[in-house]
Amino acid sequence: MRRLIGCILLVLGILWAGQAKAAAKPGYIIGFSQCTNGDAWRLAMLAGMQKELSFYPEVTFRMKDAHNSSALQEKHIREFLQEGINLLIVSANEAEPVTPIVEEAYNRGIPVVILDRRTTSKLYTAYVGGNNEEVGRTAGNYVANLLRRQGRVLEILGAPGSSPAVDRHRGFAQALTAYPGLKLVGELNSNWERPSVLAGLPSVLKAQQDIDLIFAHNDRLALGAYQVCKQLGLEQRIKIVGVDGLPGAHGGIQLVQDGIINATLLYSPGGEEAIRMAMKILRKQPYEKENILSTMVIDSTNVLTMKLQTEKLASQQQDIQRQQELLRKQRDTYASQQTVLYVLAAALLGAALLGLLVWRAFRANRRINHQLALQNQEILSQRNQIQAFAEQARVETEAKLRFFTNFSHELRTPLTLILGPVEEMLTSGSNVPAAHRHDLSLIRRNAQRLLQLVNQLMDFRKIDVGKMPVRATEGNLVAFVREIMDVFERPARQRGISLRFLPAQPVIPLWFDANILDKVFFNLLSNALKFTPERGQITVSIQIVAAEQAVRVSVEDTGRGISEQDKAHIFEWFYQGQQSVAKGSGMGLALALGLTRLHLGQLAFTSQAGQGSTFVVTLPLELPANLKASDAAPLPAPLLTLEEGIAASPAETPLPALAQGATSEALVLIIEDNPEVNAFLVQKLRPHFQVSAATDGTTGLRMAADTIPDLIVCDVMLPEISGLEVVAKLKEDWRTSHIPVVLLTARSAPEQQVEGVQAGADLYLTKPFNPTFLLESLRTLLANRDKLREHFRRELSVDTATVAPQRVDQKFLADLTAIVEANLTRSDLSVEDVARSLGISRVQLYRKVKAVLGTGVTDFIQSQRLTKARQLLLTEELTIAEVAYQLGFSTPSYFSTSFKARYQVSPSEFRALHTTPSA
């Protein structure tokens, strides 16, 4: 019986401890502001939240439906803030009206999770939702494969102005630009619901009966499109693609399986992920701010697998709910039994029986929790398989980006070694024979052509990965095209080709990106000049088409035209034509088409064999506000090279004379891993500077710290440690922080140049570079460093000799000044003593002080002593001899001589001039 009582007391103690632990577990209140619950997709989002919340019984969940009203949604969020919620989840009805109240909640310290629709601000804790632009791109690529890259497409958009509709349309349109055979012939707006399609689609299909495919922004719109097609007898001919991919009897998966629509794109509601993110935030666990849900195409090839998976997940969820209900009942039983135990503790037999029941219930709970954990693990494994497809696509895109970057760098480095010596030989003024000068000009012209091809490859990469923005400024299109044509005047005249320019008006104002259109018109004129025979004619005309709100620029030639087999492929990347005589890169026309579409324009052509070709660029008169640059940028100069050999002669492009001022005493350190470029730089700089060289970043940093050079020229792409890291380490070390650094690299993108300047580089030059310009830049940097050195010298010449450590160089001067001031009384203070206190060598200290102040260390110590002497002489408490000995001068006479040499008065005369005799 004692053992039985002990067991009962033990069980009661365990129950009491468990109750105390459960009571100590914190509870949370989560508020969810939903824009609407009026469609199946939103109901699936709420169901996912409820399913995930079943794992967190400590959470109180409150949901408020705004019924598509932004004002009501703002009111709901304010009510949540007054109710004292711990976390807010918002699915915005409209981005701009809801943003202020979301920012207010965030600024109050309440975590905010944005679900599906973004706000216009970045003031939120985390975002969970799909990438609507990626959904559009995936749909566009799938449509291209489904139609075999040929066909006419109609797009049914969601509510006008809503962010999902805008982003899906943008991604879909961008994807179609890669397939010239696909035409987006029409758009139909809707309110996301099927009746709007039933009302508006029949008239569109009757007007355009040659539509091959309809892309609807959700499955409800796709179902409406199918019903309209069936009424018109077009259901067998027109293919339909939707978005959402919901399970269930009326979901997109079932529509695909029934053959009503051809495919649907999975767009996860994100309810479960939003609750998981909320719990990570509330429990102070690590989380990502941006959580983009993956998408995939569901068609006849995988619809059965997806349906089986969703049905299995639903079945498992039902099992989980049944087990959770059983767990709840077990917990209720446990609570009632616990109450009975406390009330009937004196009844040993009843307590023993109740303890047995509690023990069995505990085992059952543990078994159920184990089963739940196994099932959750299986669900996570299936979800990870789906996400693996999206990850594979991302890895392939990154590999392509690295290939183009490395390819550009490998080409620019040998071009540097070609163009640099050639430019110097052509502009040096030496007596180069005419034949040799002609050959050098030929080398330069073809090297520049190689550089142009490299730039075209980089433009292709930017368009392919969406990294080329449009920055339009307002200008005169006629004058812009006229400047580009001027480049072609001389080569056309040499071949007897008539170059005509026929603008309809002398001035045509237009918003356009000069950097983009310059490449478009240059490629078109270059092609026209290449394929036009001698005594032929090229005509460029510009006219406004008021009916289309557009401007047309036509480039017409009298060449041999384009063959029928080439017409279908003329705009494909790297296509050179079946019967082409003048072989090129195959990128010019494809690049022109991509850039024109990027500018929201169109590029078309007409051609007849033997009669010439006409290429027409159509540009909109008005561009969206997001494509207009806030600050006007100057128009770029036209390109200086043509495939046929347009290049300015050396006499036409004189280089400025080199500035004087840098002497051969200056030490320049070169850090370049390419042996030939390294040797080329050493050869060009050695006549003007002392030069040392390193072939990797680690060696360069060591040589910089040992020798303290006056200037460093460094490549960006270095083995082991990059040039950007070298610059950062140089600027962090006070021994080398003052040294100007010039970065030489083949990475020419604007964002890469900004990255180099942010790292601390004083100048960023791209390969290939002009050796004369590099030399001039180095001399200018050294001249500016002399001005900065004079600034520091003046700053240290005032009465207070301590410099505020605002920068690394100033901190070095502050430390140096403090050490000298602390040892002013020592007459035997040497340069070695100061260097030892700073932890550097005597040579490093001398070069650092010489570089920053332009003076020696001994002169600096003497200056500090004399500056301190002026302060002490202003008081009459010390005699002149005492001041001399206190400041470390060996004799008063030496002190007087040094003081007079510095200030032109003796110490006694200085005291007499600056002190007032006592009464």
UniProtKB/TrEMBL annotation:
Residues of the Response regulatory domain: 667-782
Keywords assigned: Coiled coil, DNA-binding, Membrane, Phosphoprotein, Signal, Transcription, Transcription regulation, Transmembrane, Transmembrane helix
Pfam entry (one): HATPase_c
EC number: 2.7.13.3
Origin superkingdom: Bacteria
Domain Histidine kinase: 406-623
Record-annotated HTH araC/xylS-type domain positions: 814-913
Recorded coiled-coil stretches: 306-333
Annotated InterPro entries: CheY-like_superfamily, HATPase_C_sf, HATPase_dom, His_kinase_dom, HisK_dim/P_dom, HisK_dim/P_sf, Homeodomain-like_sf, HTH_AraC
Catalytic activity entry: ATP + protein L-histidine = ADP + protein N-phospho-L-histidine
Name of this protein: histidine kinase
Organism: Hymenobacter guriensis
